[in-house]
DNA sequence: CTTGACATTGACGCAACGTCAACCTGTAAC
DNA sequence: GTTACAGGTTGACGTTGCGTCAATGTCAAG
């Protein structure tokens, strides 16, 4: 009556592979009932039943350690599955945001406003904005800004832009993940952003540094050329609000 | 003017880690511009620019090999992103189906109709159905069936059920993945199902084996106790239809 | 006795680094 | 001069669940 099966027989009956069974043995999830003199693994009815349950849980996506806990440590399958479902839900929202991000980038690429190919060495699209800057802040402001920029070495320019680029990346990421503007992460980003702005020469930073930053924030939102740096107006709004909170609590 | 940076400086400026940069060097994705006498990696402006593009693409979820192809082999970023988006879309639908599957199982667990705990050794809920079988097919039919089942060794019973269990699993899987009833996979499953039925003794199988299978299929759909084996009526319908197609083309 | 099917135990591979470990270097401080 | 200490280097393991060789022993059949 006491029937034993070889590893292949078990694998075929259960619709899996012998490699998998040896793996389950190796990690202690499903040891065979006994070993023959020849060293062959031999499985009994209890092992087959256990295997069936293992495969059923695996089918649902549970990890092998979790399956072991359910089968051996009396962990409730219901709890394990509920936890897994939560994980998967998080995964789907993450994926959806990633897809949205890709779509935005693809659209930008098609429009030729590729963040991959442009503005690497143009310093904030510097000269491009000459007229506008002169109009809004006066010829003097542009001259100071221009002088400052040209005084930097290539290395400094590059480092400055590198930081800007990293910053933009991280802002977009934070926006996509929907973090809280007042939260730790967003505020850390705001701090980095402010630090980056401190690199500007004294002459360009007005006395009211806080007010200056708030003004910049507004500009990010209102000017689509800046807004694209932060995934559009939504992102720019996020950046502005995070900066605002930061300024109010730290400056 | 030719400025070089150490690995830490680059890492900080770009918002990544030195470990990552050494990894990118190791796989040939971003070799440093030069090596100092001390063996230190030294990066130049071109490397920083390349790094920026790498990080931007990575941010979107592209794999490092794909990034390398985009940067070096002139593969279009647009194409790479389109392909990635497709992958991710598939992923989300997969995840959604998995979540649905988990929900079904959890509901079943809560109702106490746990596939984990029941009917391992009861042989098709055999005796439980005695009256019903006698009523529908006659006392004779039940007696034959009962004799057949009792004549099997434990090993045979177990193997038979094991196959049934694996079959059910795979059916549910196919249903959840939305495969085509006439497709290769569903037909292979139907073939396995029919093979499994062939284990029944001759006495139980009528002359019209094809018709017998079609009748079974209908029963799977109409009787909720069978339907639960295949994820409810929808699944059972799928099984019935797949069997029907199989019978019509192979029997 | 040979052949083939099936068994065994390693060990690598996959994705993208994080995280030690063990050991130099460069620079500032005592 | 030496002592720290920060920062550089090259390995190598760990992560998830097996697939896939590789090298070799065992068993039933011809």
Description:
The structure is a homodimer of 251-residue chains. The first copy, chain A, is an all-alpha fold. The first copy, chain A, has 3 domains: 7-75, Orthogonal Bundle (Multidrug-efflux Transporter Regulator, Chain: A, Domain 2), CATH 1.10.1660; 76-114; 152-250, Orthogonal Bundle (Globin-like). The first copy, chain A, is built from 12 helices and 2 strands. A two-stranded antiparallel sheet of chain A has the order 1-2. In chain A, α1 (7-14) packs across α2 (18-26) and α6 packs across α7. The termini of chain A are far apart. The model of chain A is unreliable at 116-125 (pLDDT under 50). At the A-B interface, α1, α3, α5 and α8 of A face α1, α3, α5 and α8 of B. Chain B binds a DNA duplex (30 and 30 nucleotides) through residues 6-8, 17-20, 22-23, 27, 36, 38-41, 58, 63-65.
